[in-house]
Write a structure and sequence with these properties.
Largest sheet: 6 strands, mixed
Number of strands: 6
Radius of gyration: 14 Å
Distance between the termini: 48 Å
Number of helices: 2
Number of domains: 1
Order of helices and strands: EEEHEEEH
CATH class: Alpha Beta
Strand content: 35-45%
CATH superfamily: Nucleoside Triphosphate Pyrophosphohydrolase
Shape: globular
């Protein structure tokens, strides 16, 4: 029996007051935003990867990280793991190779985001529910 290699990935939805941090990558179509995501590095926990990816991609700190769920993603053989975190400080500074723009969006008026069938969409919906929106 052969077991395929999988690449663990973290997704992080970040809440600050009644706003969520959303970002747009050059890989996304114009007007489409999502939560932050990145691959887990060797000898790193999922939680460490979540904190590191947020810091690398947008320069902010997070706290109160909590696990939401997981979703297999067939290409490129990834296992997505989802988290929600609270903003802890820092100014948004986008990593140019990864993020074209990022900002805080009202939970009442979101731009186009991933559908609810995706883990990213489920995390966004859960943050809206937590905030009562």
């Amino acid at each position: 029996r052969c077991y395929p290699r999988i690449a663990p990935c973290v997704l992080v939805g970040i809440l600050h007051n009644d706003k969520i941090l959303l970002a747009r990558s050059s890989r996304h179509r114009p007007g489409f935003y999502s939560i932050l995501a990145g691959f887990v590095e060797s000898a790193e926990t999922l939680e460490q990867a979540a904190v590191r990816e947020v810091k690398e991609e947008v320069g902010i700190d997070i706290t109160n990280l909590r696990y939401v769920g997981s979703q297999p993603w067939p290409f490129p053989h990834s296992l997505m793991t989802g988290f929600i975190a609270d903003y802890a400080g820092g100014d948004i500074v986008c990593q140019p190779q990864e993020i074209e723009e990022a900002g805080w969006y009202s939970l009442k008026e979101l731009p186009q985001v991933p559908p609810i069938e995706t883990l990213s969409g489920q995390i966004i919906a859960q943050i809206q529910k937590m905030a009562g929106k």
